[in-house]
């Protein structure tokens, strides 16, 4: 295309040049009688003087001397007019040539920018040339000792990998035998035992890496590009299998897939250092020292790692603290919360240190938190501080039975940083802000002592000998195993004389709340009913007498 364009431009230039000279010749036609005659005369005079130098030379007027020229001579006027017309024709020809060249350039640019609308035709010769070139390259590879050595190393590693994996499974006990439930480091042992499924892939990758080092060390070979490609594919497959095997959370599995596999590929092909340098030199937050892209990557990685380890350590620590029978429940709860706060404070410091953020950067974080508290996080901060106060003053403890200001009641299940969880008697969890226990009045039935006093009610007819009721009911109530004799023994009280009978109540003390397994009032009601029935005392029921008055 460029060859034809250059030819076209050259042709246009020659055409314009010929046009220019033809115009000049046409412009000279009206003044042939004067200008050509003068030029011919001057030429003849020059030739004559050259041939016969002894003869006298015709002297022409000096053009610089105006006094020697007769401007009124018609021939002179005609010659000057012809000269001006020739000059104008020359300028017009130059403009025409420039315009033609400019149009040609614009057409060439339009042709280059305009996409081809028709589908490109298949160039059979070009395809054949490319195929023959690839075939020649393949034959050259097959003749190359370096290429054949890489093929041999890949095949040898493929057959040696299962043999090595089989020997490892047979000879190493942590691959051979599954760990027992009481084994030390049970979690790590389980992961190691499950990794026995990847021993063949691991051995294959290791053999390929060794083969690459050996091939690079041999002077006549010195190539390992094919080994690296195969090793990269094997590493990707190994990482994918391991992530699907060991990572159960879907979000973590996707995150690991899109981070670990690219890093493994970069490491295998030798581009990891360049990528790390790029991240290290990319500034995100301008400060001293600046926060780079690598800082954010380290922050995400070490943050996830250390907080996962922190949650694991917190679970183990809380279990160890709550298993201490020498401490009461409230003390164990306080110690557990203090341990949790200290642990995660250490985790934050470690994450910032490993991420490369100076501890002086905490000033910015603390300032941002303080600004947030001042603008809208006051309730959160108040609940956090209230939770700490509750833990230390022990006004509410885990296991207490409380009645909230809105009438809901239940057991305190947990005291968290922002709220307290109360499980109601019907199994519902109520999240109560910690400030409720600081600012409002509530009932705590088990704050100092789990012992509670309850009552059972009954009534007897008016014709009952009420002096015998205490002797027959109190021993039966006291025989119930959950009734306490302290701080008071069971007591019978006459409450009122009702419309249909005399109302009595028996007061008794028990340990715990009358709910769930502790059905104190229900059991004692049964005892009262059976005892009264045994002694022939029938509880009165409402009845009406209708008298038929005859007139």
Walk me through this protein's architecture.
The chain is an alpha+beta fold and 551 residues long. Helix content is 61%, strand content 10%. The chain has a 5-stranded antiparallel sheet with strand order 6-5-4-3-7, with helices on one face. Strands 8, 9, 10 and 11 form a 4-stranded antiparallel sheet that branches. It has a two-stranded antiparallel sheet with strand order 1-2. Helix 8 runs antiparallel to helix 9, helix 14 (362-375) crosses helix 15 and helix 17 packs across helix 18 (520-534).
Keywords:
551 residues, SH3 type barrels, 4-stranded antiparallel sheet, 18 helices, 10% strand, elongated, disordered N terminus
Neighbour order of strands in the largest sheet: 6-5-4-3-7
Ends apart, CA distance between termini: 138 Å
Q: Categorize the overall geometry.
A: elongated
Helix coverage percent: 55-70%
The biggest sheet, with number of strands, parallel, antiparallel or mixed sense and barrel status, is:
5 strands, antiparallel
Mean pLDDT: 75
Total strands: the figure is: 11
- What is the succession of H and E elements? HHHHHHHHHHHEEHHHHEEEEHEEHEEEH
* Secondary-structure-derived class: alpha+beta
Query: Helix segment count?
Result: 18
Q: Please indicate the percent range of residues in DSSP E strands (runs of 2 or more).
A: 5-15%
| Alpha carbon gyration radius | 54 Å
Low-confidence stretches: 1-60
């Amino acid at each position: 295309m460029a060859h034809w364009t250059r030819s076209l431009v050259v042709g246009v230039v020659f055409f314009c040049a010929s046009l220019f000279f033809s115009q000049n010749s046409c412009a000279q036609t009206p003044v042939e009688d004067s200008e050509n005659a003068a030029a011919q005369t001057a030429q003849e005079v020059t030739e004559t003087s050259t041939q016969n130098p002894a003869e006298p030379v015709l002297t022409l007027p000096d053009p610089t001397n105006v006094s020697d020229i007769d401007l009124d001579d018609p021939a002179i006027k005609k010659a000057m007019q012809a000269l001006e017309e020739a000059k104008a024709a020359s300028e017009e020809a130059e403009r025409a040539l420039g315009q033609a060249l400019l149009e040609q350039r614009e057409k060439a640019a339009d042709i280059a920018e305009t996409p081809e609308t028709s589908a490109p035709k298949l160039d059979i010769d070009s395809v054949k040339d490319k195929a023959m070139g690839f075939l020649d390259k393949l034959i050259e590879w097959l003749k190359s000792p370096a290429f054949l050595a890489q093929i041999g190393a890949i095949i040898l590693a493929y057959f040696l990998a299962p043999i090595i994996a089989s020997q490892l499974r047979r000879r190493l006990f942590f691959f051979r035998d599954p760990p027992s439930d009481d084994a030390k480091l049970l979690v790590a042992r389980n992961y190691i035992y499950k990794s026995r499924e990847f021993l063949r892939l691991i051995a294959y990758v290791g053999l390929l890496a060794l083969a690459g080092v050996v091939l690079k060390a041999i002077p006549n070979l010195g190539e390992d590009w094919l080994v690296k490609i195969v090793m990269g594919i094997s590493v990707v497959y190994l990482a994918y299998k391991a992530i699907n095997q060991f990572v159960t959370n879907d979000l973590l599995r996707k995150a690991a897939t899109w981070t670990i596999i690219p890093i493994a590929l970069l490491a295998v092909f030798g581009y990891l250092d360049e990528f790390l340098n790029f991240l290290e030199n990319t500034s995100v937050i301008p400060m001293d020292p600046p926060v780079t892209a690598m800082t954010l990557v380290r922050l995400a990685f070490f943050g996830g790692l250390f907080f996962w380890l922190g949650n694991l350590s917190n679970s183990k620590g809380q279990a160890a603290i709550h298993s201490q029978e020498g401490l009461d429940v409230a003390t164990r709860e306080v110690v557990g919360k203090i341990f949790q706060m200290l642990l995660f404070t250490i985790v934050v410091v470690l994450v910032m240190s490993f991420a490369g953020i100076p501890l002086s950067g905490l000033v910015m974080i603390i300032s941002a938190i303080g600004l947030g508290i001042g603008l809208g996080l006051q309730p959160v901060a108040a609940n956090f501080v209230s939770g700490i106060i509750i833990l230390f003053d022990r006004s509410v403890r885990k296991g207490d039975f409380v009645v909230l200001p809105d009438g809901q009641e239940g057991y305190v299940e947990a005291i968290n940083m922002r709220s307290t969880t109360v499980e109601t008697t019907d199994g519902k969890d109520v999240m109560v802000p910690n400030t409720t226990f600081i600012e409002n009045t509530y009932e705590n039935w088990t704050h100092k002592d789990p012992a509670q006093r309850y009552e059972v009610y009954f009534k007897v007819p008016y014709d009952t000998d009420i002096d015998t009721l205490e002797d027959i009911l109190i021993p039966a109530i006291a025989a119930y195993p959950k009734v306490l004799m302290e701080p008071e023994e069971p007591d019978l009280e006459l409450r009122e004389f009702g419309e249909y009978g005399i109302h009595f109540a028996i007061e008794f003390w028990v340990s715990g709340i009358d709910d769930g397994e502790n059905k104190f009032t229900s059991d004692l009601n049964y005892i009262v009913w059976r005892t009264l029935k045994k002694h022939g005392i029938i509880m009165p029921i409402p009845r009406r007498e209708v008298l038929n008055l005859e007139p």
